[in-house]
Design a protein that fits this description.
Number of helices: 8
Distance between the termini: 36 Å
Length: 289
């Protein structure tokens, strides 16, 4: 996403190529002023990003992508941010229905009783102090979770997944729950396959235990069912991951990411820097003349 552009140009006709002379000799202060304003703008933009309501990891990615582009001795340059989600942050994000994944994921399965499609979604919860990409869990909940008996992966295999039938246009359901739930790969004409893990389950946090320990109802809703998964490597250091598993199914009202308003960080920086830039450029021109 392009950011701020400052430029001052001179057009003395095609037969007089004296731009380089003007840039290098007549108005060096103005070129320096453009460079200084551009650098200050980039820094100001980065500062505003770090003050915005964003996750730490997103702040780092956005701020680090902001660059000042300038050729020494020239009269123009531009600040840009190349972070792929910069425009979404600036202008806002519409609401998203995550259940659309049921239309594309090859890991989708179907309930034998209702015929509804579903996905098992693992949600990882960060330990306190590790909230770069998502919110970390409260210290009090981590104290409970860290004492859980670990769950372990004890085997792996392959499972045919996906869907083969179209939903009924009237009901939005499968015509019959007895139809095959597997999707043939259009290239190989074979059933799609996905990894299937086998687990030895340890302890789980219960909603009752969380509430008894002082957790809020919202926290109990988020962390109920959490397991402590053993992620240690053979001969390596001991480690754990904290997961909850949730079901995403056709017809549910949830799994909607609410719309996010635009933060207009770049726009605010432009408005703040413009009078300063005008003053600096005017001073540079007066000083040179």
């Amino acid at each position: 996403m392009s950011g701020l552009t400052y430029s001052i140009s001179f057009d003395l006709g095609a037969s007089f190529d004296i731009t380089k002379i003007i840039n290098a000799q007549v108005m060096p202060l103005l070129s320096q002023a453009v460079n200084a304003v551009g650098q200050a703008t980039a820094l100001k933009w980065q500062e505003r990003v770090y003050k915005a309501k964003l996750w730490v990891g997103e702040k780092d990615a956005y701020a680090n992508s902001i660059k000042w582009n300038f050729q020494p001795g020239s009269m123009s340059g531009y600040v840009e941010a190349t972070y792929k989600y910069a425009e979404d942050i600036e202008k806002g994000r519409p609401a998203r229905d995550l259940k659309k994944m049921l239309n594309t994921s090859l890991k989708v399965r179907r309930s034998a009783s209702s015929g509804k499609r579903f996905l098992v979604i693992p949600l990882r919860h960060n330990t306190p102090g590790n909230g770069a990409h998502a919110k970390d869990m409260p210290q009090s909940i981590y104290a409970m979770a860290s004492q859980l008996e670990k769950s372990r992966v004890v085997g792996a295999g392959m499972l045919p997944t996906g869907e083969i039938t179209k939903l009924s246009p009237k009901t939005g359901m499968y015509p019959s729950p007895n139809q095959s739930p597997f999707l043939s790969n259009p290239k190989t004409k074979q059933h799609s396959m996905t990894a299937k893990m086998s687990y030895a389950w340890g302890d789980r946090l219960t909603k009752a235990a969380l509430l008894q320990a002082g957790a809020t109802r919202q926290q109990a809703k988020i962390y109920a069912g959490m397991v402590r998964m053993d992620t240690s490597t053979p001969g390596g250091s001991k480690s754990s991951a904290y997961l909850t598993f949730r079901i995403m199914m056709d017809g549910q009202s949830g799994w909607i990411v609410p719309a996010q308003p635009g933060q207009w960080i770049a726009k605010d920086v432009i408005e703040e820097m413009k009078p300063l830039a005008d003053a600096i450029f005017t001073g540079a021109v007066k000083g040179t003349v």
